Amino acid sequence: MFIVEIASECAPVAKVGGLADVVYGLTRELSIRGNDVEIILPKYDVMRYDQIWGLTVTYGDLLVPWYGSAIHCTVWFGFVHGHKCFFIDPHSSDNYFNRKLYYGSHDDPVRFAFFCKAALEFLLKTNKRPNVIHCHDWQTGLVPVLLFEMYQSLGMWEQRVCFTIHNFKHQGVTGGEVLWATGLGRPEYFFDYEKMRDNNNPFALNFTKGAIVYSNFVTTVSPHHAWETRFTSQGYGLEPTLEKYQGKYGGILNGVEYDVWNPEIDRFIPAQYSKDSIEEKYRNKEALRDRLWLNKNIKPVISYIGRLDGQKGLDLIYHAAFFALQRSAQFILLGLGSNQEINDRFGFLKNQLNDNPDCHIEIGFDEELSHLIYAGSDMVIVPSVYEPCGLTQMIALKYGTIPVVRSVGGLTNTVFDRDFSEKPWWERNGYTFRDLNNQGIESAMVRGIGLYFDFPQHFRQLMLNGMQYDFSWNHPGTHYLNIFEYIRHK
After folding, report:
1. What is the mean pLDDT of residues 20-35?
2. Long-range CB contacts (< 8 A, 24+ apart) of 14-20?
3. Which of 279, 347, 387, 398 has the fewest CB atoms within 10 Å, measured from its CB?
4. Do residues 201 and 236 touch, judged by C-beta distance below 8 A?
5. Residue ranges per domain, the chain?
6. CA distances from 151 to 60, 73, 126, 154, 247 (A)
7. Residue 99 scores a pLDDT above 90
8. pLDDT higher than 90, residue 216
């Protein structure tokens, strides 16, 4: 099958968040299975050019119709860790992708509307006719709209589109300017509620809604999040649209790159191990304590690893640090705030606990250290307000580190409570809680800490239960291919 991934990010060349990891991981899995997969990205000036091999001009004269005129583009080609990538490079005074940033400009909707138009124009002009075009998040939401309303009549009538929503909070809500820019025109047509009109603002268009309406299939990044976005406020206003198109909507859990996150081959940890050599894990715990100058004692190490953002349950993370120390555990935090206010808040926590030999707070992100924390910790906390999928808990399970999570989104699909899950005991792998308050996270942490001290053999069995799970891209790859085959022949 010929598949084209159109996205605003792809690890490691252009990465802001988890979207980049998904585009790379899924591309790799689909390629391994014998599919021809190509990726189309904007050519940002801030990309990791050291991660591209053989970057060269492949199409030097792409004219993209824009505002009744045209913008001249160069399309570059290079391999990103062996995968074929095309980079759209527009030559315009607007400098859409030469701004020293990926997102955050006032005209982001126009920038990415141009990217959608240019990507399809490139496919059209080069006679590339993929079986499936797979688009990701609002930045590519105009692709299915443009394909159906414009490019089908120009010769791209067999192409099918799967659209994946990674983050419902950002939907690409904008005015009608993009209609004139892209040549779609007809505002009275597209501002219809059944087309692209935002569900909450009759004077705005919504890229994500347009993609839901026009795509052949729509996915999000876990089955439970698909349910949440239809039946709770986590659809951020798109619930009626998802309800209408429920027949072509579902959730597929993201995967983990086990080539990177695997204690059996991890080059960043001093002692590699598997479930058959779990004793080696404790050498990593000693190394972690040595590196962070923590006391060496018979206490569990509880960690938080990841972004510090409102989505992640900041109040509960803050509270968990003190609760862990009160309950004779050690606490480690490695994270970077999404703004300076958050960094300042956790910087204050660091100053408060700086002299405590059972605590280490690190404001920032260190890839190598994160591997050691996963390997050396006994438990990790993921107390998210919402979590479409979540990778932290899946990585932790691979490392025999027990996740303590709030039961939302993908966390519900991956972590099964030792005491209350309906799963058989050998499939239970962590601790969960529901209430978004201190009592909620305490109820889960106290059970994990209690098991560690009172029933160490049961704690070890829970670790081994987690390590048996397979959250690689193998299963998601199968699900995506099934969907692609379904829409190809629909």
Report:
1. 97
2. 14/41, 14/42, 14/44, 14/47, 14/48, 14/102, 15/48, 16/102, 16/103, 17/307, 18/166, 18/254, 18/389, 18/391, 19/136, 19/137, 19/166, 19/167
3. 279
4. no
5. 2-255+474-488, 275-467
6. 21, 19, 14, 5, 25
7. yes
8. yes
Name the architecture of domain 2-255+474-488. 3-Layer(aba) Sandwich (3.40)
The domain over range 275-467 is classified in CATH as 1.20.1080.10 = no
- Decide if 2-255+474-488 and 275-467 have a common fold: yes
Please give the order of strands across the beta sheet that includes 52-66: 52-66, 69-80, 83-91, 36-42, 2-6, 132-136, 160-165, 217-220, 249-251
User: Model-level pTM?
Assistant: 0.95
Average confidence score pLDDT of the chain: 97
Angstrom distances, CA of residue 140 to CA of 61, 109, 481: 23, 10, 20
28-78 confidence digits (pLDDT tens): 999 999 999 999 999 999 999 999 999 999 999 999 999 999 999 999 999
Q: What is the mean pLDDT of residues 459-463?
A: 98
What is residue 472's predicted lDDT score, i.e. its pLDDT?
97
Confirm if 335 and 304 have CB atoms less than 8 A apart.
Answer: yes
C-alpha radius of gyration, the chain, whole number: 24
